[in-house]
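S.,

As promised, the phosphoribosyl ATP run. Input:
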Amino acid sequence: MTDSTRLRIAIQKSGRLSKDCQDLLKQLGVKLELREQRLIAHATNMPIDVLRVRDDDIPGLVMDGVCDLGIVGENVLVEAQAERARQSLPSDVNKLAKLDFGYCRLALAWPQELGAQSKQWFEGKRIATTYPEILSQYLARENIKASVVMLTGSVEVAPRAGLADAICDLVSTGATLEANGLMQGETILESNACLIQNPALQDDAKLSLINKLLPRLRGVKQAKE
Ligand code: PRT
Ligand code: ZN
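Predicted complex:
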């Protein structure tokens, strides 16, 4: 059952951000009855519903107003904003807070045996990535003409498989690049999970609930510092 008067928050169902999102909601005092297979979890102590979806769907759900709030990596947010803007779809969100989890960087990498390379090396090369918009914007900014090969997974094997000369992928510890014999180059985006809001939200009750949650969020962040 859905109820449009309840504040709707989209979080990742299962993946790297799920546990941190659930922990954060708990720390904010939101009591949830989470059932593994359910798309929607209702809070029992506040008018809040939590939608559990794939992280890639979160920006669109918030931009279209299907959800009022969402928690998503800035990498996914920035990519979705560029893609939707190109398609003339709503792409605005209010970024309410940068959260202290989900840190990673989107970086260029190439086969280690080629040794250190300058930006000019990328000219005319094929670069595999899951973030074609962010990469294309970077290449345009740097005036590098390279082709972008879109892959939704296993980007790190693309050079070995002969699908690309280099990659542009998320890195956290660097272990995946190392295991695949790749050398890390320039970081083109640093990313954390962030809390976003639909900018057209006008419902007073929902806005006042958000205004109650935000100081708690600041309190949780300060307590960790
Ligand atoms: O199923 P769904 O679509 O929801 O999930 P997903 O598989 O697309 O995403 P998921 O759960 O892997 O990641 C969710 C978000 O976590 C990402 O969008 C980032 O904002 C953030 N995040 C933080 C990361 C990483 N760190 C990370 N290391 N996302 C992915 N990785 C991958 C990276 O792609 C590479 O394969 O981990 C590998 C590199 O890690 P290291 O530690 O070996 O460098
Ligand atoms: Zn995803």
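The chain has two domains: 7-102+192-224, 104-191. The longest helix spans residues 204-224.

- D.
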